[in-house]
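FORM 7B: Structural annotation worksheet

SECTION A. Query
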Amino acid sequence: MLLVTGATGNVGAELVRALAEAGKPVRALSRAGRADGLPPGAEAVAGDLNEPGTVRDALDGVTALFLMPGYSGQRQVLADARAAGARRVVLLSGLSAGIGDTSNAVVGYLTDAENAVRESGMEWTFVRPTSFMSNSLQLADQIRKGGTVRVPFPDAYTTDIDPYDIAQVALRACCPRSSPAGSSK
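SECTION B. Predicted structure
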């Protein structure tokens, strides 16, 4: 059984779909725990990563989990997952986690999340995409209106990645054939 946290988000929803299509048993965790939109075979469960006690039951029988970063209960969720028998964790992180400037809030929470996973005692993989292609949808209204399109960092270059493709990497990390533990993708 694989547990996908953030199962209704951009990457999580794609990963749940990919796991179900691959015939893998998947449990989809979201705060609401709704089954709406889940593929056949995916089990919906409610839980909040800020409140580890709400996640414990969802860990029953889980061998691997896909984990979202930035939640206050992450270390306890990892400890509970290991105690429940999980052997592998795949963390959705970000490229900026590698720069080490923890005075930046985003880098800080990603670095903390990666450290917690490293210390969990489980095999791990970090998936570090740069920018989600789906974020560009926020520009749609500006584009339709014509004229100037305003973005927060106009001189920054990113490599936008479709959440589907990020989920495909996460799928392979969750269900490895023979990949080494302790790696970043």
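SECTION C. Observations
Residues 105-118 form the longest helix (14 residues). Strands lie at 2-5, 26-30, 42-46, 64-67, 88-92, 123-127, 131-132, 160-161, 183-184.

SECTION D. Sign-off
Analyst initials: ____
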